[in-house]
């Protein structure tokens, strides 16, 4: 992987919500792109918050794959307790302003799109986190990153597609 590798983000905009992604998060996503045929899917938790007045979601942190996580070429399962501990620690240290937003994982394809397994997993995450206003899910591909924002309590959004370079 070269240092100048770009991540293009395909962002499905939801009710004019902007997603701001910290450089540190983008750096982690670049690190885990499945460039080599032997690279396994990577996965982690998205942590941040939102500002309702500004209509912005902030992805400030993400966890990286851990030893107990299951990772294969086209499969992953978050198993390591580190992920939940990190969310809990950040929630407390931020005085409840930063929290679990969703998940990210990689796909070994140029322009990723969610699989049926991804969609089912996202639905379960939304149901488990019904107290959240929004949930965010990201799939890191080789040439583009797919980001989906769901407003909890709503069915499904199929709004504007937007591609940005970072």
Strand content: 25-35%
Distance separating the two termini: 16 Å
Helix-strand pattern: EEHEEEEHEHEEE
How is the biggest beta sheet arranged?
8 strands, mixed
Helical proportion?
10-25%
Rg, Å, rounded: 15 Å
- Report the mean per-residue pLDDT as an integer: 86
Labels describing this entry:
single chain, 166 residues, alpha/beta, 8-stranded mixed β-sheet, two-stranded antiparallel ribbon, 10 strands, 35% strand, globular, disordered C terminus
Provide an overview of this structure.
The chain is α/β, with parallel strands linked by helices. The chain is built from three helices and ten strands; from the N terminus they run E-E-H-E-E-E-E-H-E-H-E-E-E. The chain has an eight-stranded mixed β-sheet. It is globular and about 45 Å long. The protein starts with 7 loop residues before the first strand and ends with a strand. The model is unreliable at 1-5 and 156-166 (pLDDT under 50).
Overview in brief:
The protein has helices at 23-31, 82-93, 116-128, and strands spanning 8-12, 18-21, 43-51, 56-62, 70-72, 75-77, 99-106, 134-140, 145-151, 161-165.
Topology at a glance:
Blueprint: E1 8-12, E2 18-21, H1 23-31, E3 43-51, E4 56-62, E5 70-72, E6 75-77, H2 82-93, E7 99-106, H3 116-128, E8 134-140, E9 145-151, E10 161-165
């Amino acid at each position: 992987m070269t240092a100048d590798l770009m991540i293009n983000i395909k962002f499905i905009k939801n009710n004019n919500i902007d997603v701001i992604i910290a450089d540190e998060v983008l750096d982690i996503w670049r690190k885990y792109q499945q460039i080599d045929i032997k690279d396994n899917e990577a996965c982690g938790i998205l942590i941040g918050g939102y500002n309702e007045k500004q209509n912005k979601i902030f992805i400030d942190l993400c966890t990286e794959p851990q030893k107990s996580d299951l990772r294969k070429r086209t499969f992953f399962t978050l198993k390591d307790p580190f992920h939940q501990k990190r969310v809990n620690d950040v929630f407390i240290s931020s005085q409840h302003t930063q929290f679990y937003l969703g998940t990210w994982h990689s796909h070994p394809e140029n322009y990723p799109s969610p699989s049926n397994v991804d969609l089912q997993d996202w639905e379960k995450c939304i149901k488990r986190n019904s107290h959240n206003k929004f949930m965010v899910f990201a799939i890191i591909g080789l040439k583009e990153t797919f980001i989906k924002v769901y407003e909890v309590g709503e069915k499904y959004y199929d709004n504007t597609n937007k591609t940005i370079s970072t």
